[in-house]
From TrEMBL:
This is Rab-GAP TBC domain-containing protein. GO terms for molecular function: GTPase activator activity. SUPFAM superfamilies: Ypt/Rab-GAP domain of gyp1p (SSF47923). Coiled coil: none annotated. InterPro entries: Rab-GAP-TBC_dom (IPR000195), Rab-GAP_TBC_sf (IPR035969). The lineage of its organism: Eukaryota, Fungi, Dikarya, Ascomycota, Saccharomycotina. It comes from Komagataella phaffii (strain GS115 / ATCC 20864) (Yeast). Signal peptide: none annotated. GO terms for biological process: intracellular protein transport. It comes from the Eukaryota. It holds the Pfam family RabGAP-TBC. Residues 32-294 form the Rab-GAP TBC domain.
Length: 433
């Protein structure tokens, strides 16, 4: 079954986009099914049906291909308005191209700086998977072009926090490779697209353009919240409040006893949308559910979807998975653990793990389900307190009595773990001398 057939079966199975999103959130529709297609979910929720997701608007599974055509035509206009000045690069640069007539070398100093930044970032994108971008110049050129256009569209000379920021290329890259995996092969005849209209979603020459549209929709609210410094500080404060309300003891241990400012490590979790913590394959599973949940919970007074809503709850649960190890560790060990989340079976290299922390197992479906459950009760203090206590105890494997740790925390296993971590630290220090 190819991806067009998968899409056709999916469209026949669910009567509305909202039904499909509900199935994604509940895990009824998941990658284990023979007819699952991620591109369909992402392109319905973030492109063709994006502005139809308000609760008061009817939702149907009839794909609006005119929206797809419109977004692709808009991208083409952007690319003509903001040509990438490849010819301003050094001639020995692998991305250098001959001077284009539309590029004025005397008025593009700022554009050259933008391009050089993007080239530098994309040359090292996902180094554990060099065939995706590092060795594939077409993919790299497409992502650089798309991010250059996005930067030009979102660059405010009066706001130093606007425009592209490092890390955005990883988000765009993960979107793009997810769509590339399901795109149709080159050379399909026009009759095929006429016979199978849904195939328009999988056209290979539009993959980077659709990736741009998805990225642009995601960044509409994520960029101001997570990439602008003042706003990120506010988001960090909100996270600390949530973390404290969920597990006061653990929060105080990290922030008061060890004096670790949450913003030091939280910035990567937020700005990279968990890519570094979960790895590529687990992150796309998480995004599936975040996109679907966000689509279902779009408010009447907004034209855009709030993708950041679940992230703080997910992060709290991920940190809780580390609780038995963080409570047994000291400042430098805990900070290292937070910055190098030790998830089991991550599909990136776990480089330089000096401390040999025990890898944690994360069930993505359960993780997002519990995050949603917590978010649904956050406005009811009593219910949230009861629920969060149960969830925290289940994720950490530790019992708490109010703000004090249960005696089980000081068990022989706990003390053994603390001793091993301290010995590892001592060995590391001796080897570095």
């Amino acid at each position: 079954m190819d991806f067009v057939e998968k899409a056709e079966k999916t469209l026949a199975t669910y009567s509305t986009t909202r039904d499909l999103c509900s199935a994604v959130v509940s895990n009824e529709y998941n990658p284990g099914l023979p007819h699952f297609t991620r591109s369909l979910v992402w392109k319905l929720t973030l492109i063709t049906e994006y502005f139809k997701s308000k609760p008061h608007l009817p939702s149907s599974m009839k794909v609006d291909y005119s929206v797809l055509t419109q977004t692709r035509n808009t991208y083409q206009k952007y690319s003509e308005k903001y040509p990438v000045p490849w010819s301003l690069l050094q001639q020995n640069d692998e991305f250098y191209q001959e001077q284009d007539a539309s590029v004025d070398p005397l008025s593009n100093t700022d554009d050259l700086a933008k391009l050089q930044t993007l080239v530098t970032d994309c040359k090292r994108l996902f180094p554990s998977y060099p065939n995706l971008f590092i060795k594939d110049k077409e993919n790299s050129r497409n992502i650089i072009t798309s991010l250059f256009i996005w930067w030009k569209l979102n660059d405010d000379v009066n706001d130093t926090n606007s425009g592209y920021r490092q890390g955005m290329h990883e988000i765009f890259g993960l979107i793009m490779i997810s769509l590339i995996k399901e795109q149709l092969p080159q050379g399909k005849p026009e009759q095929f697209y006429t016979k199978h209209p849904v195939a328009q979603l999988y056209g290979p020459k539009f993959t980077h353009i659709d990736s741009f549209t998805i990225f642009n929709r995601m960044m509409y609210k994520l960029a101001p919240s997570f990439f602008q410094e003042d706003n990120f500080i506010q988001e960090s404060i909100k996270f600390d409040i949530l973390f404290h309300n969920c597990d006061r003891y653990h929060h105080q241990y990290l922030t008061k006893t060890l004096k670790i400012d949450s913003s030091i490590w939280l910035i990567r979790y937020y700005r990279l949308l968990l890519i570094r913590e979960l790895g590529l394959s687990s992150t796309v599973l998480t995004w599936d559910k975040i996109f679907a949940f966000s689509y279902l919970h779009k408010t009447k007074d907004s034209n855009h979807i709030e993708f950041a809503f679940l992230i703080p709850y997910i992060v709290v649960l991920l940190i809780t998975k580390l609780k038995p190890q963080t409570l047994a560790s000291e400042y430098d060990q805990v900070l290292y653990m937070l910055l190098h989340y030790p998830i089991k079976h991550r599909n990136e290299e776990n480089k330089d793990d000096h401390y040999h922390f025990k890898p944690v197992v994360v069930d993505i479906n359960q993780l997002v389900t519990d995050a949603i459950t917590l978010s649904n009760t956050v406005d009811n203090a009593e219910a949230f307190s009861r629920l969060s206590k149960k969830v925290i105890e289940r994720y950490s494997g530790l019992k708490l009595d109010g703000s004090k740790p249960n005696h089980s925390i000081m068990s022989s296993d706990f003390l053994k773990n603390r001793l091993e971590l301290r010995l590892n630290k001592k060995v590391k220090q001796l080897m570095e001398k």
